[in-house]
Design goal:
The protein is about 75% helix and about 0% strand. With about 280 residues, it is mainly α. α7 runs antiparallel to α10.
Length: about 280
């Protein structure tokens, strides 16, 4: 009876997981289908999953109408710089938070939790005034600074959890061998944190790549606008979307995140004991 119940529960779990995957995949698959449909099929009263007459005209039109390559370069620059800076800052801070319990680390943990509850609208006015004082309005570096500050709390919280999972015996053994704090962090802890660092960097990158609100408010000139902002230009004055080119451009905008995750997924799931062997 218990074996049958276990099989039923497992089957229910797989069914729920399948439904969840279908729920996630449906918008993306429909986006791909729309991107390759000609105008006649986009206006059809009986839409189909697979385009009957696939075309690349939507992609050509998207590149002709909007500077997608320049916008993608801006987004890539902002996302890569924000991810790199956030990880470099968060790694030693997370180590201190995890290894040295004090009122300061407790306050920092509370700041991490509270900061994630702030809505964008609440902070945009003081943030705009600060960046204006620093002469960073309409600047990619100003936007990068915002992305770093916004992703840093989650990066700290995530990396601190990875640090706590590293056995302290490894650090004690390195200290017995004469290694200092910096050497222990670089040679012992950092290799073990590689999956967490990669996962955190991926989170920071995707967050910055997809972010729209801050980029819309802080970047004024078309030459510095990021890809999510440029995608809104496919909407007409009356809110009518140029559906084919918009779908094509949105499909291209999702590719970097998918490719990046596919490339580094092995790094995320592996290497948990890479630094556990002394040389």
């Amino acid at each position: 009876m218990s074996l049958r119940t276990g099989r039923t529960a497992r089957a229910g779990q797989y069914a729920a997981l399948l439904c969840y995957l279908v729920f996630l995949a449906f918008p993306f698959l429909w986006l791909i289908s729309t991107a390759f449909k000609p105008a006649t099929e986009l206006g059809s009263l009986h839409p189909t999953w697979i385009p009957e007459d696939p075309t690349l005209d939507n992609f050509r039109q998207a590149f002709d109408e909007q500077p997608l390559l320049r916008a993608a370069a801006n987004s890539l620059t902002a996302a890569l710089c924000a991810a790199l800076i956030a990880v470099v800052i968060a790694t030693p801070m997370a180590y201190v938070m995890a290894r040295h319990r004090s009122r300061l680390s407790t306050a920092a943990t509370g700041w991490v939790v509270i900061s994630q509850a702030f809505p964008f609208v609440l902070v945009i006015i003081p943030l705009f005034l600060v960046l204006k004082y620093l002469h960073l309005i309409n600047s990619l570096w100003g936007l990068i600074l915002v992305y770093v500050v916004w992703s840093l709390p989650f990066a700290l919280w995530m990396l601190a959890g990875y640090v706590r999972a590293v056995p302290t015996e490894l650090e004690e053994a390195a200290a017995v061998d004469g290694a200092g704090r910096t050497r222990i962090l670089v040679s012992v802890v950092a290799p073990l944190l590689a999956p967490g660092i990669v996962a955190t960097a991926l989170f920071a990158f995707i967050t910055a790549w997809n972010e729209f609100f801050f980029a819309l408010v802080l970047l004024k000139t078309p030459e510095k606008q990021t890809l999510p902002v440029v995608l809104t230009h496919f909407l007409g004055a009356e809110g009518v979307a140029d559906l084919g080119p918009l779908a094509a451009a949105a499909f291209l905008a999702t590719l970097p995140s998918l490719v990046l995750f596919a490339v580094i997924q092995k790094r995320i799931t592996g290497g948990l004991t890479a630094g556990a062997v002394k040389s």
